[in-house]
Amino acid sequence: MCCALWSCESVQPVQDLSGLDVRLTILHTGDLHSRLIPYEMVPQYTDEELGLAEGQGPFGGAARVATILKDARRNAGRSLHLDSGDYFQGAPIFNLFKGEAEIRVLAEMGLDAAVAGNHEFDEGARNYATQLERWSTYRTLAANYDFESADDPWNSRLDALIDPVAIFDLDGLKVGVVGMGNLSSITSIHEADNSMDVRVQDTMQTIDHYTALLAPQVDIVIVLTHLSLDDDVEIARWCKDVDIVVGGHLHVALDPIKVVPSEVVPGKRVLVSHAGAFAKYVQRIDLVVRDGEVIAHDNELLPVDSSVPEDADMLDLLHDYERELADTIDLTRTVARTRDRLRRFGSIGGDSPLGNLVVEAMQYRSGIETDFGMTNSLGIRTDIQGPADGQTEHDVTVEELYNVLPFDNTITTMFLSGVEVQEMFDYITQRSAGRGCSTQAQISSARFIMDCSAGIADEITIGGSWAPCNNDEDCEDTGEICSALRCGRPIYPSESYELATNNYVASGGSGFYVLENNTTQEDSGISMRDAVEFFMLELSDWQTDSEGNRVATDLNSLYPEGDGRITPRF
User: Fold this and answer.
1) pTM of the predicted model, to two decimals?
2) Do 106 and 228 reside in the same domain of the chain?
3) Same domain, residue pair 72 and 106
């Protein structure tokens, strides 16, 4: 009982399900980001509302996810496990094994299909193709990536490994799945060092094309995406042949899942699911399907905490990886201590405490020491956690630095003219304006007003005395100007300023094209993460505890909150 365009995953005896209420369970994971091993965190308000309680850590881990999946499959008849991508990158196990462990884990879980997330390409197309060929037992989907247009032979391999759609025959219930890869990060993927060089297809046209082909052959159509929640809602609203959207990318967890009225099929209601990130949740969706229509549904967002037993088979698979990881990197070593959470986002959308620390660590690193520094905000992937309940201090370990800065970026220096500095800060402003005027970059030894309504950077200064000021008259003695309530030196078009940034941004990543073709670039080879660790050690006032161990004192006194380097103007 094979399908006309694509072979079915399994061939079952013909069953007539006409007029019957058929039950289907969809198990949804996504944005695992290499969190295969349980990890400590302090649950914030949203996590607590969704069932993750302080004192129930460590959280996540593949062995616990596997237990939830096995239990769900055991208690379901027809079931399908779908992953919405970005299972690579985010923990030290990826830095060491380059995705091998993640793909083996998903295969062990019995995953049916995954969409290709943008971070799957972080070590390049060649690595992704190699890991899929060696270890994958599941279908990988991305209908909107045209690999055939690329000359790179590794992309040709990916063209054979990644399909636009898959059809699953589940005891006579046929389910079609269309994969939609990420678009918001695709420019960085194909224009930066980890080049894919693929042609991207239009979202709605691609979905309409493939779902129209699938609809006559299947009972329900699922779109598996790594786009965004807003995109997924639009797909649900305007694509007539879509029944369910299973999405990811922005780390949103939905409970309950969304029910979106169709704008093109009267009376139709399309389901949209997001399952969060970092292996904190598994989304279970139970459906009743009758004659190709979803007539009822329920969902349960299942927290992954210490109350969930660990699956023995998964623990066995991970054992050798964990042992080699422990032998290679001392993840438990303490590098600093905090009394409160060191946040990666500023409270009003401007610079943040953790962002300021990271960029200063880059700029002031021995051998770098430039005029100013800048890094992309989303390269800093999580906060430095605060003390757990009942504790007054939190040890920052090497493992936590890997979680904060998982990418193996190095520090690149270059010289920019005043015109280029203006252009770079204008771009940061324009990019941030489209994201609620929340800055998409962090800086050091510079200040500017981020005028999101006008799309320009105003009152830019670099260096200077940084004395507090209320107006330019307060800065007259030093010949500076008052920018963001601090004295600083204004930029001049013809002058040259040396920048320290990361190699990803330097190569045009995240749309920083003003830097991409700069001929003065020099990659120092110094790891951004190592620079931050060294900086923390240098900043810390080392003391000896009662057992004679050297421990670092608090960072919060040095970085209590963003200090106004980037001031949003709405």
Assistant:
1) 0.88
2) yes
3) yes
Q: Which residues contact 247 (CB under 8 A, 6 or more apart)?
A: 30, 84, 224, 225, 226, 227, 228, 229, 231, 232, 272, 273, 274
Is there a domain that residue 195 lies in? yes
Peptide bond into 58 cis (omega under 30): yes
Q: Write the pLDDT tens digit of every residue in 331-348.
A: 999 888 888 899 999 999
- H/E stretch holding 319: helix 312-328
Residue that the structure tokens 């699953």 belong to: 168
Question: What percent of the chain lies above the pLDDT cut of 90?
Answer: 76
Cα separation, 373 vs 364, in Å, equals 9
Decide if 214 contacts 198 (C-beta within 8 A): no
Least confident of 9-18, 33-42, 387-396, 519-528: 9-18
Helix and strand tally (H, E) in the chain? 16, 29
CA-CA distance, 4 to 36, in Å (whole number)? Answer: 38
Q: What type of residue sits at position 132?
A: L
What CATH code is carried by the domain that includes residue 134?
A: 3.60.21.10
Cβ neighbours of residue 532 closer than 8 Å, sequence gap 6 or more: 357, 358, 361, 362, 401, 404, 405
Domain of residue 293, residue span: 24-323
Across the chain, mean pLDDT equals 91
**CA 370 centroid distance within chain:** 29
Distance of alpha carbon 118 from alpha carbon 113, whole angstroms? 16
452: in domain: yes
Q: pLDDT for 355-387, tens place per residue?
A: 999 999 999 999 999 999 999 999 999 999 988
- Distance CA(514)–CA(293), nearest Å, equals 50
Contact 234, 255 (CB under 8 A): no
Paired strand residues for 527: 410
251 domain-assigned:
yes
- The Cα 390–Cα 406 span in angstroms is 29
What DSSP character marks residue 244? E
Q: Which uninterrupted H or E stretch holds 78?
A: strand 78-83
